[in-house]
Specification:
Keywords: Calcium, Coiled coil, Disulfide bond, Lectin, Metal-binding. The chain is an alpha+beta fold. Helix content is 19%, strand content 32%. Bound molecules: calcium ion (CA).
Length: 260
């Protein structure tokens, strides 16, 4: 056997040895890789079970909500849409692009948003129409210090007052049409509550198109607060109180309530 053949034979042995070593190494690496992948997979699954696939819950409960406006500047805040009670509701003013939003406090993976509409609408709710800054008139002024606007200044100690005349009246312009259901009339607190009697309350979209809301015979007492409900809701922008007699009309305060 020549020396050249021995070298080749020796190289074959070396080749086999190296090949075996490589195969062994690959198997070890495969096992380690397999183990790493198993650990990684378990890690992902654990994370998913806690943060992604975990139990779905209401992340908005108790969080801070806001909305683009409050109805009449004070009613139905955004938080009423998160109080867990479907009998209450949030409500904006009538406006362009109204919006409501909630700050969840941190990042969440949101999977579902449930929105509930008002359960009962809308005849269940009447609310005071803000009269601040609204236009008022009366049939005459007893004195300049008793203007018609004294009846909507929020102060029970000030009052409007007409002259003694036939069919005195007081009229309010709400600025927009409401579905009016109730009027509260506050008599003077110092005296003369009995000035309020035989009073018609009429409501309408224009002063030429008015409908009787209700009639109050009276007379009222000093400091009395009259709650006068329309027999049925009346769509109106103007609210007029008039006495069908020769009388004075004096009103400490008037409040109008309408359906939302
Ligand atoms: Ca007043």
């Amino acid at each position: 056997m020549s020396s050249a053949y021995q070298i080749i034979e020796s190289d074959e042995d070396l080749y086999k040895t190296v090949t075996n070593d490589i195969n062994n190494l690959e198997r070890k690496m495969d096992k380690k890789f397999e183990k790493m992948m198993t650990i990684l997979q378990q890690s992902i699954e654990n994370k998913c079970s806690k943060e992604i696939i975990g139990p779905v819950y209401d992340a908005a409960k108790g969080k801070v909500a806001k909305q683009s406006s409050l109805y009449q500047g004070k009613h139905f805040p955004a938080s009423l849409a998160l109080d867990g009670n479907t009998g209450t509701f949030s409500h904006t003013n009538g406006e362009r692009n109204p919006s409501w939003w909630v700050d969840l406090g941190r990042l969440f993976r949101v999977v579902r948003i449930e929105v509930y509409s008002r359960r009962e609408c809308c005849d269940q709710y009447i609310f005071e129409v803000s009269l601040h800054g609204k236009h008022t008139e009366q049939s005459s002024n007893y004195l300049s210090s008793f203007p018609a606007s004294n009846a909507i200044d929020g102060n029970l100690s000030t009052f409007s007052h007409t002259l003694l005349q036939t069919n005195p009246f007081w009229v309010l312009d709400l600025g927009t049409v409401y579905k009016v259901k109730m009027i509260k009339v506050f008599a003077r607190t110092d005296c003369c509550g009995n000035y309020i009697h035989d009073m018609d309350i009429i409501v309408g979209p224009t002063t030429n198109n008015m409908t009787l809301c209700t009639h109050y015979t009276g007379p009222a007492s000093t400091k009395e607060q009259l709650v006068l409900k329309c027999k049925k809701p009346v769509d109106g922008r103007f609210v007029k109180l008039s006495i069908s007699a020769t009388a004075r009309m004096a009103l400490a305060e008037v409040k109008v309530f309408a359906f939302v």
